[in-house]
Amino acid sequence: MLEALAFIGIMATLARAAGGGLFAPRLPDKLGFVPEVLFGLMIGGGFVALHGGGLLALILSAVWAYGWMETGHGTAYTMGRQPATAQSGRKQTLSRVIDPLCEAVGAPLGGRFYCWAFMGLKGALIGLPVAPAGLLLAFLWPAAYEAGWALTERFPALRARFAATEMGEWLTGASAGLILALAL
Hints:
By secondary structure, the protein is mostly helical. It has eight helices and no strands.
């Protein structure tokens, strides 16, 4: 039980730092990637604990998770509440998959379907090294951002303290920590 709480706390902290909060603003610009690397190493450690392997397996699975953490989500983190942002700015890596999917099913870019599909794919790819439990992040990653928006919309006191995306970052990390605890 204590290990599960530790995983949840560590991963939530790293996810929030990866989003630019907590200690991240105090890191030199050249070290801004550190929270994502540490997040990836936690996933990589989970892979080695589950599937075996040595240092190479740890590095490869950590790089995999880190790479998908770095794909961006600026077009999807609004969970459909600000659709205009999905059509502006740089193209996100997963947009190359999600945009055609949305066009095929007639869903608007930046709408709820788009955001859930985008964040779901991102979560699944990050969690893949600790599959099968890691694949639950396909649901939990977008659900965390959705919950962040819902909580801050419903509770003004919470909204005064946290942005919806901050809540999403905390909750995605907590979800990943829970997945690690369940997987191990």
